[in-house]
Amino acid sequence: MNRLTYWLLIALCIAVEVWGIAIGNRDITVVGFFAGVGVAAVARLLYRADQCEGGEEA
Hints:
This protein is mainly α and 58 residues long. The protein has helices spanning 3-23, 26-53.
């Protein structure tokens, strides 16, 4: 995952959170938060996988 994709997905998740706050729907806010956490986790896993492929141990 390149940096542009990562930041666009994070921005989308933040927008969903703000939208949920604006309309007063807590469920949408929570979904946006967990989607953002998921994006960060997947980016971290992909980064570690790239390091392991390069011969470095985690």
